Amino acid sequence: MKKILILTNLDSGLYKFRKELIQEMIDQGDQVFIALPDGPYIKSLTDMGCRFIDADLDRRGINPVRDFRLLRHYMKIVDEIRPDLLVTYTIKPNLYGGIAGRIKKVPYAMNVTGLGTAFQKDGLLKDLVVFLYRIAGKHAKTIFFENEENRQVFIDKKIVGEEKACRLNGAGVNLEEFQFCGPPCHAGETHFLFMGRIMKEKGVDELFEAAERIMEKYGDVVFDILGTFEEDYRQRVEALEDKGCIRYYGFQADVRPFIRQADCFVLPSYHEGMANTLLECAAMGRPLITSDIPGCREAVIDGETGYLVRVKDSRDLYEKMEDFLRLSRDERMHIGEKGRCHIENAFDKKKVVEATISRLMAE
């Protein structure tokens, strides 16, 4: 039996996207400790058998004092648990958890679930994050990536050698949980769905601009929006609701009813590790419209299971939405069926979990 300590920043992401991996660890007799901020999914994780340690952190920005406290807290947790393996997810747990693992000489693996804002433009912040990643990753057992471009960035920046850089097909998708269903019947309406944090980098500016143009031309289109506000978009969302342009439902613990009611899923994101929402919607047979960027394009066969659009281009997004609106119900069904097949072939959660466990447990 091994003690496995997992560090991450958010309970919902850990439960929704890693519960199958955690369950596999528990089923093979390992003790799993999770250190992260408290949240509504902690009970679900502890019911599975995880042991919870409250480890609060500031998810966004760099504050030297707070981040140093986080590093000290992680080191204290490692001292108390004495894990046989440390596994980290997301930027700050990767950086400071990785450094803690290195200092304490504990075998550790890092998961890069996306490069984040810091890598989007050159500057002091990017240099600092690269520097910290080099320190954190130097003695890592392995570093997992969700797309090939992110993996190559880390290799090019000399953060990790090729032999330790392992690309997975994202977190994968549970094909039993997200089952295929045919297009909905909306009495002439078409529903576009967006799920994600309401923030600029998810492409919501372009989405809202394209939605307004679509609504000016078509009276039988609905835009359903799910997600929490990460930035100050509340007034704009309320204004669009008042105009009848969008319907905002906030955070939803179970997104499947909304996917079933959607005709097409739209994600015009600026950057992703691997967008799980794309995988979930395609698994349920929904055509996709998303950005032609790493972490999104892998989920789509352009022109066959959906459409790729130029990043930050609201006009291209609008035109692809129009292309979709011209499709018949049978054509939409055909696209959805091909999308499901693509997900089954490339993103089956069982295969991703198997590959992860194999790499983590290798000597």
UniProtKB/TrEMBL annotation:
Alphabetized InterPro entries for the sequence: Glyco_trans_4-like_N
UniProt keyword list: Transferase
Glycosyltransferase subfamily 4-like N-terminal domain mapped to chain residues: 3-147
Top-level taxon: Bacteria
Family annotation (Pfam families): Glyco_trans_1_4, Glyco_trans_4_2
Gene Ontology terms for molecular function: glycosyltransferase activity
Protein's recorded name: Galacturonosyltransferase
Lineage start: Bacteria, Bacillati, Bacillota, Clostridia, Lachnospirales
